[in-house]
Amino acid sequence: MLARARDAGITRILTCGEDVSSSRAGLAIAHRYDQVRVAVGVHPHRAGSLDPAALGDLRRLAEDERVVAIGEIGVDLSGRSAPREEQERAFLAQVDLAMDLGLPIVVHVRAAGPEVRALLAGRNVRGQLHCYSEGPAELSAWRALGLVPSFAGPLTYRANRALREAARATDALLVETDAPYLSPEGHRGTRNEPAFVAVTYAAIAAERGSDVSALSATTETVAAALFGGRW
């Protein structure tokens, strides 16, 4: 998979933790393969697992230079996640951890845009807004909070016009896979992987009247500024 990513021109992969165990596993991979960086965190689906011991484990993992962010953290009100109160508690605890460590956050938002924006109001954060799912109208509010929208495979689907409009309108952006999920057009129904991000890059470049090389230079600049010297 990593060889295919290299062949597709991918020079950096950010893998995100779902809990302490997967965060630790991601870091082990990053120690083996130089192109991999890690976000450590507890996903809203597993918010109940974030106790003081887990928070301490994340803090210790984040000392490693290959850890560039706290994530994937956030709020998911799709009905498939932990109770809302539990999610918000875990989210804010990890936001505070990121602020304390001076690290950005990777934020999962599903059916919860207004709620997450309200939770982050007044907090001095920066980060990646994972798998952006709203439209152009919400961009300014997210950008004011210090978050950069990140676009995944669904942008390439015919029905998702609002996503393409947002990608065209934003002043800063990132591009991602959300692998193994959300494969782009042409790969739908198959397991997603980093190499497929090239399809999404091509779609966004076309929307922005650019080319893939210029777009990748833009996203590399954004990523380097966001994730800092560890990137």
Number of strands: 7
Using the alpha-carbon principal axes, give the shape. globular
| Tally of distinct domains | 1
Radius of gyration over C-alpha positions, nearest whole angstrom? 17 Å
In the sheet with the most strands, the strands line up as 1-2-3-4-5-6-7
* Helix fraction by DSSP (H/I, runs of at least 4): 40-55%
Structural class: alpha/beta
Largest sheet: 7 strands, parallel
Note the gap between the termini. 21 Å
Q: Label the CATH architecture.
A: Alpha-Beta Barrel
The name of the CATH topology is TIM Barrel
Task: Give the amount of beta strand, in percent.
Answer: 15-25%
Helices, strands, pairings?
Elements: H1 2-7, E1 13-16, H2 20-32, E2 36-40, H3 52-61, E3 67-76, H4 84-101, E4 105-110, H5 113-120, E5 127-130, H6 139-144, E6 147-151, H7 161-169, E7 174-175, H8 197-207, H9 212-227
Parallel strand pairs: 1-2, 2-3, 3-4, 4-5, 5-6, 6-7
